[in-house]
Every structure is written in C-alpha cells, then in structure tokens.
Amino acid sequence: MHELVERLYPLCRSITGDGVRRTLEIIGELVPLDVHEVPTGTQVLDWNVPKEWNIRDAYVKDPTGAKVVDFAESNLHVVGYSVPVSARMPLAELRGHLHTLPDQPGLIPYRTSYYAEDWGFCLRHETLESLRDGEYEVVVDSTLADGHLTYAEHVVPGRTSEEVLISCHTCHPSLANDNLAGIAVATQLARRLATTSPRYTYRFLFAPGTIGSITWLARNRDTVERIRHGLVLACAGDGGGLTYKRSRRGDTQIDRAVGHVLRTSGRPHRTVDFSPYGYDERQYCSPGFDLPVGCLTRSTYAGYPEYHTSGDNPAFVLPESLEDTLETCWEVTRVLEEDRRVLNLSPYGEPQLGRRGLYGALGGRSDTKQAQLAMLWVLNLSDGTRTLLDVAERACLPFRAVAEAAQSLEDAGLVREWNP
Amino acid sequence: MHELVERLYPLCRSITGDGVRRTLEIIGELVPLDVHEVPTGTQVLDWNVPKEWNIRDAYVKDPTGAKVVDFAESNLHVVGYSVPVSARMPLAELRGHLHTLPDQPGLIPYRTSYYAEDWGFCLRHETLESLRDGEYEVVVDSTLADGHLTYAEHVVPGRTSEEVLISCHTCHPSLANDNLAGIAVATQLARRLATTSPRYTYRFLFAPGTIGSITWLARNRDTVERIRHGLVLACAGDGGGLTYKRSRRGDTQIDRAVGHVLRTSGRPHRTVDFSPYGYDERQYCSPGFDLPVGCLTRSTYAGYPEYHTSGDNPAFVLPESLEDTLETCWEVTRVLEEDRRVLNLSPYGEPQLGRRGLYGALGGRSDTKQAQLAMLWVLNLSDGTRTLLDVAERACLPFRAVAEAAQSLEDAGLVREWNP
Amino acid sequence: MHELVERLYPLCRSITGDGVRRTLEIIGELVPLDVHEVPTGTQVLDWNVPKEWNIRDAYVKDPTGAKVVDFAESNLHVVGYSVPVSARMPLAELRGHLHTLPDQPGLIPYRTSYYAEDWGFCLRHETLESLRDGEYEVVVDSTLADGHLTYAEHVVPGRTSEEVLISCHTCHPSLANDNLAGIAVATQLARRLATTSPRYTYRFLFAPGTIGSITWLARNRDTVERIRHGLVLACAGDGGGLTYKRSRRGDTQIDRAVGHVLRTSGRPHRTVDFSPYGYDERQYCSPGFDLPVGCLTRSTYAGYPEYHTSGDNPAFVLPESLEDTLETCWEVTRVLEEDRRVLNLSPYGEPQLGRRGLYGALGGRSDTKQAQLAMLWVLNLSDGTRTLLDVAERACLPFRAVAEAAQSLEDAGLVREWNP
C-alpha cells in the first residue's frame, strides 16, 4: 500500500483533469475500474460540473530572474484551478496572490479556488520573508476549459444486490495521508474481498471530493437505496489512532459494526457523532439521502498540523498504520457479512452442553473459557429479538467468538438460523 | 435595579398588609400594575385567604426599661403575623417566644406564624445571651383582622394570547436577595420586553409566596392553559452562580431554553431537577396544574448562610449579579421568541453555498467560521423534525448563531419556515 | 445462623445422596420441609436425573502405607461423583487423578465429575510436592447407582397466590460461604416471614445447583407463572460487601427493590447486570422461563480466593455478614409487600398540611424534616402514574419514609389507594 502512495504522490490531481485520469490508470492496474467522464456544465443536484483544469508549468521569478516559487518543485505551489497568467508586477501587487502559513514557516499550504476564477501561489512563509522588493515575473501555464469530470467505480459482486459503499476522494494533489492512504486501503480491501464470495455487493468509488460524490449521487439517485452500509475512507495512514465518525442516523448497522470492532480491538480509538463538516459523508448524509455511511480515519479531518500542507508527504504515512486501517475495515466487513439471528431451540433451562461435548467434564473450576461463555450468551439471548452483534455487544465479547459459538450450537442442533 | 432593592428594603412586608401595598405602589412607578385585593376568608383551592396583618410597633424592654429588642431597628425582630400583646413577664416565660440562631449569633433570624395565632420576637443570639433575669415588658402593637390579600399583575401584550409567566414573591420583609432582587429583575425584564413586539404575552405576577400563587391559580384556573412557559424568579442578586430548577415535567421548552442559554453562556451554573420544595413552582407544578414553570435563582432556596437572616441585606446583593440574571432572562426570552422550524428546500446533497455568497471562495483552509458551520448544521438537520433550538443543541452552537444562519439561508431561498 | 453453618459443614453433600438428605433433615428442624425424591433417569427438560452417588471412605496410601490423602480428614479430598476404585499404581499414573492449586499450595480444591464417570482426589499442592515415587494404594469406597435426586420446599403462605421464590443450592460439600451461608439466611428469612401475614406466598427452594433447579422447573413448568419475584441466595456470609445481580430482564420489581434497598442503605455494594454464568438464576432466567429472579451474594461467584477451596470454611463466614444479608433480604420483602399506588385527591396546588397537623407551624426555618419532604413528594408525584417505590427513587428517599408519608396522607384523607 505504501508503494502505491509513493507512486501516486507526484501526480497533480484536482477535481478534474489529467492528473485524476493518470491516478485512476494506476489504481486500475490493481483493480479493474469503470471510469466515468461527465461533461462540463452537466447539472448535478444543486451544482454544475465545472470546467476542466490542467496545468503544465508555473513559477515566480524574482528581479534577478531566479525562480523563487516553482510548480516543478511541488504542485502545492500553485493554487488549484489557477487561471493562466503571464505578467510582471511589483512584489506589493504580487503579495495579494501569495499564500503562506506564518505559524508553520517551513511548510507549503494547499489552497484551491475551484468556483471563483483566480490565480495564486502557495509558498513557505520563510521564502516570502526572504523576497526583496522589485519587479517579479509570474507565469501560470494552465488551461481552464470545457472538458470533463472523471471518477471511477470498482465493484466486487456479492450474492445479493444489497450494496456496501466504500468511497474515497481523488482530488488532492501531492498530499499523502489525505487521501492517497485512503485510496491505497480501499484498493487493498477490494482485492481481499474479491477472494471471498460475499453476501453484499461492494462498490468502491474513487471520485473528487464534494463535486464528485454529488455527481455520483445525481447519476445514481434512483439506485442509492441499494446501499445498506457505507464508509468514507480518508487520512488512513498517519500514526494516530483510528477515529470513526458515525453516520447522520448514528445507530445504523455500520455504526454499530465499526464501534464494536474498535471497542473489542484493544486499539486506541475514538468514535464521534456525525457533523456536517468533513469529507463526502457530508453528501451521503445530506437529509434527502440520509444514507447509512460513516467515515473512518486515523487523525481526523483538519486534525493534525501537517493537514493540507507539504508536511503531508509519504514519510508521514506509516506502512503499519495502513495495515491497521485495512485490518479494521476487514473486521468490519466480517461483522456485516456474518451477523445474523439464531433461535435457541432449547430455551427452557440450559441445554446439557456437556453431553454434546461442548462443555468441560470436570466441574468446580472457576476459569471458564470464552468459547463456553459465548455459547451460554448465545443460548440465553437468542430468543429471536437479538442478532449475534446484539449478543456480542451485550456480552462484551468479540463478534468472532460469538459467531463461532453460534456455529457450534447450530452444528449441535441447539439453535437454528432465524429470519422473521 | 439595586436602587429599587434599597428603596423597598425597609418596608415591613408579609403575606398581607400595607407593606405589600406600599411595595406594589413603588413597583407601579416603574411598570403599570393591575392590583388585586382578595377578601379574608375567600376559599382558594384547598386554602382560605387569612386575616390581614398590620403592625405599627413592637419592642421588649428589660428590667431597666431599656429596649433590648426593637421593631423600629429591624422588622425581622418580630415574628410575622404576631398577634397583639402588651404584658410583663419574667425572662424564663419570655424565652419561649424568643427565636435566635445559636450558630450565627450576630444575625437576626426571620420567622413567621401565619396559620397558628402566636407572637414572638427574633433577635441576635448574642443579645439573648446578654439578657439578665428579671421582669420584662413586651409590646406588639399589631392588628390581625379581616381585610384583604393583595397581589398585582403587569402584562406586556404579545402578538398571540399564549403567555409566559414570570412570578416573584412579595411577602418577605427586610430581606434583599430573597426576594427584592427577584422583584427588581422582573421589573426590568418587563420594561425591556415592552420595547419589543413579542410573539408571547408576558404576564408578571407579584404576589405573596404560597398563598399568593395559590390565590392567583384559584382565580385563573380556567385560563392557566394559556401559559406556555414560565419562570419563578428568586434570590436573583447574590454573588453565586446561576441555578435553574427544572419544571416538574423536566423537558419542556422553558427547561430546554434556560438549559441551553446557561450551557452556552460560559457562566458557572447548575441545573437541577424539580423537587416539591422551594418557591411558588411548588404550586404551579402541583400535579393538577403541572405547568411548564421552572425556577431561576443564583444561590438556591435555603442555600446560603445569610438565607432568612438579617445578613440578607442590600449589601449582599451585587449590581453585576442583578445584571447577569436579567441578561440571562433576556436571552431565554430570545430563544422562546425566535425558536422555529425551517425546512431545507435543497436536501439532496449540500446546496452550493459559494455560488450564493454564503461560503468562502478560497478552499483548503481548515478554519471554518461558526457562521458557515451553523449554516451546514441548519441545512443538514432541517428535515422538518427539528427546531432551531434542536439544531443548536445538537451542534453545540449558540442559539443566536443558528437563528442567524437560518435567516441567511431563508433569505437565499434555501430553507423556508415550516409549520406542520 | 452461624451455628447452622457449623453444624452442616462436615456433611458430604453432592447433587444426590444421603449427605443432601441429612442436610434437609437438619434444616427441617427449623422450618417444615416438603422433601421430594426424583428417580434416576427421570427426564427433566433437556437433562436426565443422574445416578445417586454415596461415599463411605476414600484414601491414598504412599509406599510406606501412610495415608497421604484421606476423605475422613476432608470430604473435599475426593472428586465429587468419583466411581469406586481399589487399586495400586505408581505415582506417575496416579498423578493424572490428582488435582491441586499450585498458586494456593496450602488449600484443597473442590472438583466434581457428575456427568463423566471418573475418579480423582483433590489435595494441597504442598502435599503433592512431598510425594515420593513408588507404588501407591488408592481406595474410593463409593456407590454410583440408580436412586434419587433429593430437594425440598418450604412455603410461607400469603394472602395471594402470587409467589416470591427464594432459592439456594444444597450440593456443595464442606464449603461454608458457598452455600451453607445462603441456606442459613434463607432459613432465618422464612422464620421471620412466618411471623407476618404477607401479601405474597413465599416459596423457599433447597435444591442441588443446576440439575436441582432444572428438575424443579421441569416439575413446576405450568405453575412458574405464579412467581412474581425471586432471589437466588449464595455466598451470603463472607466479609465482602453485598452484590446484586439483576434478572435477565434487568428492570423488574425485584431488581428495582433490591437496587433501592442497597442504594439507600449506605452499605458498600455493587449491582451488576445479568450474565448467563453463576448460580441457578441461569436456569430461572433461561429465555423460555425468563423469570424475574435476581441473585444476591456478598463476594461474587468465583470472586474470592477461597472460592471452591478448603479456605471456604466456617471461619470464613462472619455472623455479622449473615445478619446484614438477612436484614437486606427483609428490607427487600418490605418493599415488595408495601409498594402500592396512591392518588392525590387534592392535586391543584398543595393542600394545606398545617391545618391538618402535618406541617410545622413556625415558618421561615430552612430545616424541613424528611417526613414533611416525603409527604410533599408523595403529593406531587401521586397522579396515578407512579408507585411509592417510583416516588422513593425519584425523591432519593428511603422507601420506608415514603410509605409512612403515604399512610399519614391517607389517614388525613388527602390520598387514597389507587388500583387502575
């Protein structure tokens, strides 16, 4: 996964353009993608698909002709969606187009101007401090013209048409944790799910933030009801603990599944309520759709100093963090796939487990194993009102242990699958 | 407000009598009052209006003829409703009629005997200690006879007949925080509301504790259903933080509004559940009426050492505390007046706020302003199930910010008022 | 109660056999018992009544002929339900039949093998360590043959056929806290209840753990619906604080009554949710029956180092702990017996308590007595929706005070019993 992050890092992505297409080509080498091109001007919900932006070069030369800001060094140097410019101007005038972080003088900020035609440069504050007065040359060799917005889908077919949506944004240029890490985890999760025969159909969406999910929602408005659970993956690789942001409804199966996996994982983690600010869950959880989609990150949106700066580079993303996020996603899919309701067929008193080889023969010991406790919990609570996840939550046992106990009891004929 | 407290302080109030009438005259100079006189013996709910009590003088002279206890020095010296007496008796016999605070020897307690005919004096315990044996002269020049119970109402008319009740008791003699402070805050709140054109009709009640509110309830039994929200104001001026005691129902709009204002004010405060002991909320929240009336105080009923003693004097009431209580009441009325339900007219995805000048043009920054967050919250939660107060509570934002965001969105045509 | 513990301690009890019969004879000297004998092989729910086990002697002799393990010294030395054996074998072979506690080398463990025919000895680990290699003689003089399972009931008749079940297990050999203490408390509680004319019929069950309650449930399947409340009593005499384990439903009257008594007792205590592991509540709370039965202990099941070892002897049981558990049970029965619903007949405003001699005449004091507060709470909350226990819980007052206040108010004609 970290290799993918490194490989995608140099590309200049935005909400449209060839950087996104190139990114999707590379992802497509790992999982087959269905790429969609949506023309500029297309009405999508309350929005319109913007013009397509591409850039070849950009720089600022000081009075001596030295390049003091250079797109070739980092694509963060140019404000996203900067219109073409070729001009000479005094520093005083240029300053209005320069963005820095005075509190983090060594870092380049990330800025965009998608919907207001403008141009600008982002640079280290220490560089700005070093600039001398005089006439500067400014060049932005970009095009902003009718074209397309590009996004892609990958589907792992399931035994049912009910879908799990995994969504990650593809619009950020050289920023590694946000969101190449999310892209890498999603890609690996898709490959791992493809080795199974899942109950759910898993739809992976790679699209630009906000306008991309809005475009997808507009074009799939009649089929979104298929989505039973969903996760937005972002900031999936930094060194912080995992954070789960619940869906707008707050108590959906995905909220409960992720919450359970995190609680029983022993990992440091946080779960927070939904708020209408962050990533594409903002769109999926808008009141008209109100989809059961949460957001899984490590450090949160705008929650770390390197966020949206040149400090968010491949070195900031840890291979073990990517693995940990992937494993968590995998465990969550296990709960979604395996949760079910069983019915205790011997509900009057406890059935004699020992006779069936399910219970230790020697009595009196005070150390009962988790497997035996899990069986007792499944028997006691499986009256048709509770699922295995309900049992696991009530018993404070890992879902895995409860699911295995239910299987043992089913094999012994003590419970049967129950679908009201 | 503090001037009013000082001016009313010397008057000898009780649950009936000329002290109450004089108090209402002075309040009437600030807000027009509708004064009611209810004859002795009138049946009011389970009670009867008692005889009217008036007192001119009272003292205790020691064997040397020196006045050791003198009504002229403090009206707390006489037990409220003491019957007339003129007698000579040894100290031993007199002691049975003397009330002191051994733990607070320098303070005069406040005692009454409204419903059991008796007489008595309250004095500093240190004074009692200094009394020598011998024959004492006791005089209480009072009258207890058929008359009237006096209370007053002031109404600020609103655009609807739904009412907000503000109630404070007028029966305490020279006690400043309890309850001249409540009277002063209520009077100022009435004057401030009169400068607006409120949605609710605000009814201010100045009446003696318990028997006064019972009398008012008895005489307004058929119209109390007009009362949508209410507050009992008492102990409104001491140096302690604000305390809100919820209504019996506990989750009414007034409970939520006061709770929200206190939570978002940054002020130290407490909110406590209803209990059937305290001020006139006892009557308003009796199960037959069960009105949505809470009680706002600073230090609580019987919750400070000076309570019901000569220590509760004008110096114990701080002008800034009176201001703070008034401001809190004002903010509460803002919530009551401005809370409403709006409907998001663009619920599928987020509407494009930037196009409408409601969102910053430069993207990528991580410092989003409260105003923008408030708009996102209003849009996300305004599905017809929530009011602006619901939104403010869920978003942990001040009601003010949410109400302004709703107005901006309404002006932009993105939401509309919604009345199911 | 401690004398009973000491008297019963030496008997070798098990889930069947003469030790149980002798135990019931002794209990029968204190309260009349209805003893039931259920034949081996009888089907009881999912189980069958096992063979009856009796033992006369058992020992292990070392190569020198010295008895190194002797049933006569402690009946814990033999694994419960050991089949007869008379053999000579080397220590290496014998070891497979020896059970010790390496972490508690000075204590004899308690072990059984009810449902897998086997034999074994339990001994101090330090004894095991001292054994020298060589040929050992092993004798278990027991019989395992068709017979009966024995349990007993004692009933304190009530004014109604609604029952309260008090259940304690009788299957443990020389273990004092688990469960001779529970037996002793149950016996005393029965004697104390017999001095009253209770509303409920109290059924005391003395039966072996698991198979005993299963047998009782099987034979009373059609009448268990009479059980309105129940308690399993165990570990009732150690020095730890009380622990209440709620019923499966978690919010039944017994759960609320015990919780209230513990909360208002000032005693250190714990209340924990139901789990399907512990004593016979496992059977009563199996989903088919789901009876409102909780479990009251001091230290919990498997919750103390002496648990199921020779350390659980009469010295481990404290007379004052037995008294404290008994008193708690008694207070719980008071709540069950006296809880009721009253209706405030004067719900508009507070009735004038003073006129009826229910309120102090002298006003102004800030120290109101609990009795008066309790009356105000009963009046305020008795609108037909709440029982006296509801009132006590809401008011944070002891049930006793609330019940007495309700009686005073009923005597004054201010409330009446209310049965919807």
From TrEMBL, chains A, B, C:
Top-level taxon of origin: Bacteria
DUF2172 domain: residues covered: 52-143
Location of the UCP01524 winged helix-turn-helix domain: 342-416
Domain spans labelled DUF4910: 2-339
Pfam families according to UniProt: DUF2172, DUF4910, HTH_47
Name of this chain's protein: DUF4910 domain-containing protein
Organism per entry: Nonomuraea guangzhouensis
